[in-house]
Design goal:
The complex is a heterodimer of chains A (about 375) and B (about 130).
Chain A lengths: L7 H6 L3 E5 L2 E6 L3 H10 L1 E5 L4 E6 L3 H8 L11 E8 L5 E11 L2 E6 L4 H14 L6 E4 L5 E6 L3 H6 L14 E6 L2 E6 L8 E6 L4 H12 L4 E3 L2 H10 L34 H10 L3 E8 L10 E4 L2 E12 L4 E9 L8 E6 L2 E8 L7
Parallel strand pairs in A: 3-13
Antiparallel strand pairs in A: 1-2, 3-9, 4-7, 4-8, 5-6, 6-7, 9-12, 10-11, 11-12, 14-17, 14-19, 15-16, 15-18, 16-17, 18-19
Chain B lengths: L7 E2 L4 E6 L2 E6 L1 H7 L2 E5 L6 E2 L4 E7 L3 E5 L4 E6 L2 H4 L3 H4 L8 E5 L11 H10 L1
Antiparallel strand pairs in B: 1-2, 2-3, 3-9, 4-6, 5-8, 6-7, 8-9
The chains are: A alpha+beta (about 375), B alpha+beta (about 130).
Chain lengths: ~375, ~130
């Protein structure tokens, strides 16, 4: 039985096409992926991302525990700040990527991928059990949260109509607990589209109120509901990794281009030894952005060739609604990574010309 | 959703317009609606022999790749050259501007296997 978010009936009323995603029945599109994608780039879009999981970590040892559990440096965070990070296995493979919110030194919230929530929580409990830390509690609080994402150049203006919170004081990767349409909301200036925007956490009972008020407040600015289809094309144009594609137990954060969040200088964290070794030896493969110079749509799993030789595989691909061209993220041999390098992608029986390009594919 | 009465249909969601031994083939309104935004179309070349039930082309939407199956056996005598250039025609006009190929039938008896509009409508209601 698939899980449904608090907004399920709202999606049906809006005529959304529903699909299975990570154990949830979610809207993939309302009017059309391309239209919704372009709305986010040029105006604003509202996403139901309540399927994402939330795990609360509290206690005197919470900071020490999270330093061991995650690869970024949690000590850099001030209260009210969020951090993009990941959890690794001892061999350097990725358990999940996540957003970590710091309320105070003894209170944190982790936002994890829907399909991984149970796995992540089990992993976190196991790590805690194996640690010497006693003053930590972890709770899977996913059922207590609905999450909406308001994304696009118009997001701040639209949200400002529904809240007294001074949004100009919430910088990127910061959050504030305020009221939106009278609903207690964690307002986080984060997102997965490459546009300015907010992720709004509220109690599921208030999700419908929040959703309807936001849509009404943004209608004149072109705000539309957006499904998971456009969420994927938007993140792909930014080359943001997606778990199960660019990140997995078989792909390390260094290979995935997440060296910038991998704080090897931290004295210890799970996976550090393996990642340190990988860095010293040099990584054998890495993620690059590809743009097709011929017509075609690259897809995950398609082989990538250089000089006729197989050198890697497409991890995500689509037709970019902004560029109207096939774009892909591919995991390739690291010696073939320079922008400008000409490659081929195997699409069915053809080999289609592509070029390694600098990313993001679309400039912000 | 439209199902023109003068067309025949397959369970793979192609439509067929029969004019003597020449048939025109495309995908149905239901098919284009299910696919969403069509962004790429791959069609066979003129002169290619196609076989009933075998794939002759590909339609891709943003999210999915779908094979297009030939409803009949025969030879491709004309293809819609506009489609690869402007694949979104399939979304806006699946039964007219979005036609895909014209095939010269080699076995007119195969046409009896196709569904009429009413049967096709019933078929997709069951899905």
């Amino acid at each position: 039985m698939l899980k449904r978010t608090a907004l399920y009936s709202v999606h049906r009323e809006l005529g959304a096409r529903m699909v299975e995603f990570g154990g949830w029945e979610m809207p993939v599109q309302y009017r059309g992926v391309i239209e919704e994608h372009l709305a986010v780039r040029h105006a604003a879009g509202l996403f139901d991302v309540s399927h994402m999981g939330e795990i609360e970590v509290q206690g005197r040892d919470a900071l020490a525990f999270l330093q061991e559990l995650t690869i970024n440096d949690v000590a850099r965070l001030a209260n009210g700040q969020a951090q993009y990070t990941a959890m690794c296995y001892p061999d350097g493979g990725v358990v999940d990527d996540l957003l970590l919110y710091r309320f105070d030194a003894e209170h944190y919230l982790l936002c994890v991928n829907a399909a991984n929530t149970e796995k992540d929580f089990a992993w976190i409990e196991q790590v805690l059990e194996d640690s010497q830390l006693s003053a930590v509690t972890c709770r899977n609080v996913s059922a207590d949260f609905a999450q909406l994402a308001l994304q696009g150049p118009g997001a701040a203006l639209i949200l400002s109509r529904l809240t007294d919170t001074d949004l100009s004081r919430i910088a990127g990767y910061h959050f504030y607990e305020g009221l939106v349409a009278q609903v207690p909301t964690l307002i986080s200036r984060t997102g997965y589209t490459g546009e300015d925007g907010f992720e709004l956490y509220s109690h599921p009972e208030s999700a419908e109120t929040l959703w309807n008020h936001l849509l009404a407040a943004g209608r004149e600015d072109g705000l539309v509901p957006v499904g998971l289809g456009a969420r994927d094309t938007l993140r792909l144009e930014m080359k943001y990794p997606l778990y199960g594609h660019e990140l997995s137990p078989e792909i390390s954060p260094l290979e995935a281009g997440l060296g910038w969040i991998t704080r090897l200088e931290k004295s210890s964290f799970i996976g550090r030894q393996a990642l340190l070794r990988q860095k010293e030896q040099g990584i054998a493969r890495c993620l690059v952005g590809l743009r097709l110079t011929d017509a075609g749509v690259p897809r995950a799993g398609y082989p990538v060739y250089h000089g006729g030789e197989p050198i890697g595989i497409v991890t995500s691909g689509t037709l970019s609604p902004s560029l109207r061209q096939g774009i892909a993220i591919a995991l390739v041999r690291s010696d073939v990574r320079r922008p400008g390098t000409l490659l081929e992608i195997g699409i069915r029986r053809r080999r289609v010309a592509a070029e390694i390009v600098k990313t993001p594919f679309v400039a912000r | 959703m439209e199902f023109p009465e003068d067309l025949k249909y397959t369970e793979e969601h192609e439509w067929v317009l029969v004019e003597d031994e020449l048939v025109t083939v495309g995908i149905t309104d239901f098919a284009q609606d299910s696919l969403g935004d069509v962004v790429f179309v791959e069609l066979p070349e003129v002169g290619v022999k196609v076989e009933a039930g075998k794939a002759f082309g590909v339609v891709e939407s943003v999210k999915a790749v779908s094979d297009i199956y030939s409803p009949v056996t025969g030879e491709v005598v004309e293809v819609n050259e506009e489609l690869p250039e402007t694949p979104e025609i399939l979304n806006t006009s699946p039964y007219e501007d979005g036609w895909m190929v014209k095939i010269r039938l080699s076995d007119p008896g195969e046409l009896d296997e196709l569904l009429d509009a009413e049967s096709y409508r019933e078929f997709i209601e069951e899905l």
